[in-house]
Amino acid sequence: MNLTKKEALILDQLVRAGSSEMYGLEMVKASNNELKMGTIYVTLARLQEKGFVESRKETDPQQTVPRRLYKITGAGQRTFRAWESAMAAYHAQLNGAIA
Amino acid sequence: MKKEVDKDRVLPANLVRLSASLNQLRHVVTQIALDSKLMKDTATQNLAEAKEYAQHHYLASDEELHVAHIKPNGFIIFAESLEPLAEKKAPAPKIARVYGFTFARVVGSCLPRRLREAVESQHADSHAYYLEMVAAKDEWGARRVAAMMYFWILASVFSSAVPLMLGMFKGTAGASKE
Fold this sequence. Notes:
- The complex is a heterodimer of chains A (99) and B (178).
- Chain A has a three-stranded antiparallel beta sheet.
- Chain A starts with a helix and ends with a helix.
- Chain A is α+β, with helices and mostly antiparallel strands.
- In chain A, 57% of the residues lie in helices and 12% in strands.
- By secondary structure, chain B is mainly alpha-helical.
- Chain B has five helices and two strands.
- A two-stranded antiparallel ribbon of chain B has the order 1-2.
- In chain B, helix 3 (101-109) packs antiparallel against helix 4 and helix 4 runs antiparallel to helix 5.
- The relative contact order of chain B is 0.07.
- Chains A and B meet through helix 3 of A and helix 4 and helix 5 of B.
């Protein structure tokens, strides 16, 4: 369950998208400049290798260059939920220690 | 016994036949010339339409359009432009400049499959972004995206190469301990 900040951001967006698919540019636009065009695709490839996302090539004939659509897997959803709760517990502990 | 040939009769007959053949040949040549002129006119018209379309939708420069029909490298001539030129019913051909296509292919060919897919999808999205800018008639935005596309591809390659290199170093360290 070792997720980097960028991986968590991507998984967060894919969880929010639910069963629908997203492409990289859509995620970059939705992230308020937290994700960059130069790095998101490598991160997505890494997540795919880990089995947290799955992808397929777009089949729209209108597209000159077919894009790749990404979708979260069950393992990805479970990992993200676990990471989210772990981070929440960590922040709560940190706030308790400071207070 | 040798047969006598009347030269005065044979020559005019041959001349008549030759003249008829020449007439026929002239007719064929004229028809070919007319056909080729018609084809040329239609092709010129289609190319003019395509250039206007490319200028309007893809901000293609005059130099790019000048070489478009003789140097197709870097230009995608869509399938409909390959329809028979003589048929005027066919839709006007579109010429789109796909920035970074060759670059992405060349860079991708040097990478493992997983990273090649990443570079290809990166280029596809960048191109979609470029087309969005063009559709919004943001000329400078489109130019910026077209220029940044190469940088993004290189950034993808380097950001994928760093973990690979680190992994190699880790592997070497582990091996030396054993």
